[in-house]
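User: Hey, quick favor. My workstation is busy. Could you predict this chain's structure for me?
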Amino acid sequence: MNMEYKIGEFVRFVDEDIEGYITSIKNNNLIGVTDDSGFEIPVPINKVTKVQDETTKKGNTTSPVEAKKRVKEETQRQTSQDILLKTPAEFIEKGVFVGVIPQQIPGKADLYVSNNTSFEILISVSAIQHQNAVGISREIIKKNSSSKFFSGELNSIKLWPKFNFQILRFTSEEREITKPIDKTIKINSTDLSIEPEPLPILKTNGWLFPLDQQEKRKIEKLKEKHISHRPGSKNKNSIKIKGKIDLSRFNR
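Assistant: No problem, here it is.
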């Protein structure tokens, strides 16, 4: 093996404006030189020349060993990033809710639109009273975000208006076409009779009303609540008759 050159030495190409550190010795006539871009270039030994004290001339305090280590770390980092980019994240299509959140002030609540999907959504919220509608909020809500659109008194829920939601969903990924959401809801006091649930995006507990799917959970929980409180009959034979019965008088 040609010992004229060693790994870690700084060299410059004779015929090209390229320089770097020797990072491998292929054979007696061929070495590998890694330049600033991090790529190793195979080159014949007679096509390079040593550059003495290059680190001092350039004001570079990085030793050849450290430079080689950094090249290796950068290559590993780029490989890890490529793997992550090739692994697509799960796309969540459903999960647009209205969240009713009790305020710290007793007797009051805030209403939010919560976007738990992978879409960005454009919402328009209107309040409906006496068959007329007035817009009260319009917003672009990014994924895993929320926006407040109403505040009200909990003891006056029956006076709250109906809310109409018109929602467009957007994504730059290639997906099937989604139809706009057009849904009207009326929140009643019975809707808040079940236990509030954790709302991760809002980081609190509250009541959820889906806008992009059917609401079954609330009805089922109310049924369970009422059925569990029905008194059961301990005695199947609730009526006992003593003595004989004369059935002749019932004959026509």
